[in-house]
Amino acid sequence: MKTIFYIFTIFPLKFAFFLWDIIFQAIPLSFLELLPPFRVTKKNLSIAFPNIADQQLNVLAKESYKETLKSFYETLYTWSRSNKKIIFHTKKIQNRYLFNVPEPKDGLIVFALHNRSIDFMLRWISSHRAHTSLYKQIKSKPINRFVKKFREEGDCKMVATGIGGVKSILSSIEKNQMTCMASDQVPARGLGVYATFFDHVCYSFSLAPNLARKSKKPILLSYLSYDRDLGHVMNFKKPSKEIYTESGVQAMNLEMEEVIRKSPCEYSWEYKKFRRLPAPLKDIYKD
Known about the structure:
7-stranded mixed beta sheet; two-stranded antiparallel ribbon
């Protein structure tokens, strides 16, 4: 399977990105609007940025969808390359000292968002430090087995989202280990709370701030970004102290918002972030 992914990503990253830029110049908006993921992208952007004009929204949605496809290419590329190759492509580490300061024996909580490829980011992290991380199982069993095995290289442990996975994460924190989790997706019922995200009510994953509040362990926000002149950038950010309080989930959402606003097109908007709303609110994705 690794060979298949390698063939699909035979072009170097920078050249592949250039090709996507050329291709999207020729794709009309009317065609993209036939695609459900693009329609979700546009809907989410209209919620997050309600004051932008329709023309600006269309431009941003198209740019965002293009970056999502680049992110998918990054993921397949990561699955078929060594950690040394990913380290090579990571041209800058923003606030690296935050990641290096906690000793391995002290434990660390890392929460991330889907800014470009999560797997690229995890590959860099796991090449520097073992961790226990949550992951959402892929529907295709062969691909799921491959990805799980791939992510567990370097003495890392992947646990599926759900009660069992949360228990494993709690155990790793109690043992002063590092744990990583994407905190911007809609969690299973019982694993989140309602907070606001871009001023809209949103069922939000509460595990990372809850762990921080109860364990008092260091917590960092991590995300991947891309600089056209430089290349890929790994970013670490120390969140507000509010994340250690009862309002930690809202503090976490605000931290992620701040990152997204810097470069909205790099975030994966094609996910139905606002799909689990409290009654009597209706499904905003239904026409």
